[in-house]
Automatic annotation (TrEMBL):
<keyword id="KW-0732">Signal</keyword>
<dbReference type="GO" id="GO:0008092">
    <property type="term" value="F:cytoskeletal protein binding"/>
</dbReference>
<protein>
    <recommendedName>
        <fullName>SLA1 homology domain-containing protein</fullName>
    </recommendedName>
</protein>
<dbReference type="GO" id="GO:0030674">
    <property type="term" value="F:protein-macromolecule adaptor activity"/>
</dbReference>
<feature type="domain" description="SLA1 homology">
    <location>
        <begin position="19"/>
        <end position="77"/>
    </location>
</feature>
<dbReference type="GO" id="GO:0042802">
    <property type="term" value="F:identical protein binding"/>
</dbReference>
<feature type="signal peptide">
    <location>
        <begin position="1"/>
        <end position="24"/>
    </location>
</feature>
<dbReference type="Pfam" id="PF03983">
    <property type="entry name" value="SHD1"/>
</dbReference>
<dbReference type="GO" id="GO:0043130">
    <property type="term" value="F:ubiquitin binding"/>
</dbReference>
<dbReference type="InterPro" id="IPR007131">
    <property type="entry name" value="SHD1"/>
</dbReference>
Amino acid sequence: MRSLLLLFPICVAGFLAAPQPCSAEVRTWSSPHGQYTLQAEEIAFNDKLVVLKKSDGSLVAVSLSELSEADREYIAAKDKGNTDNPEEMQTWTTDEGLKIRGRVEAYGRREVTIQRRLGKLYVADQLFSTISPLQQKVILRVISKLEGVQLTDEKALLNWASALTARGKTYNLEGVKMQLESGDEISIPFFMFTPEEMAILKPGWEAWVAQHKDQEAAEQESFLMASQAHAYQQDRAQRQQIQMLKLNLLATNAGIIDIWEVELRPRGYGRTIRVAVPASDSRAASYIALRQHPGYVVGPIRKMNL
């Protein structure tokens, strides 16, 4: 894979592989012992999570370890049969109408310095003239937006940079990494997307920032964002944010036959969680769910039909 200038480096570890897009097939998913079942189609998966789309269009992410052996085997078979397909690429539009064909993969942030040295322009220590035309357009748009000037080409940017000190000027950029059809990678700040598309990409950003020191948690947010982007591109009317579905408490069932689905909403940043809880009544279910997830408040509760 060719590597373009990345405005911000993003760790892509084994957990944060690009979400594997899946064919639309509605099937029954269940907890290991069958107490909880769900009719849904898979939207994406990696080695830890699967994102499911329910019949009402809502999206939930479930840990593979909390699903039945049959479900895990189903995903494993999907993974082995997966091959890259150009049709998996998506078309994204910048606020100025530039169309970019690529697949959103992860969040990222970085300080980027613009400098003029001996009459030449450098961006993050890379010679501007050696950067791909698309990345040049991104850089020109970034500086134009942040500085409130109109920079349309390298000459205009070089003239603007002539007023900078020898140390140049540094910008803090936040956004997403994309893989293009060519195999190149490019990074796009949030503010370059249209408001509609930024509404899809940015909601998980605050949680990513809050958890960036926890690599696995941060990578999970990037995966969920990429999965959300995939679902949105498949259906532009799909703008619901992914919720986490927790089934691990079902293993504590000690003869209690009632299963409750408790919705927990974060007090601060984070995603809404749905927790399946074995309990005698809704009050007990709320207590158990909150005990495992402090920092949340209880939302709607419903009794599952078994």
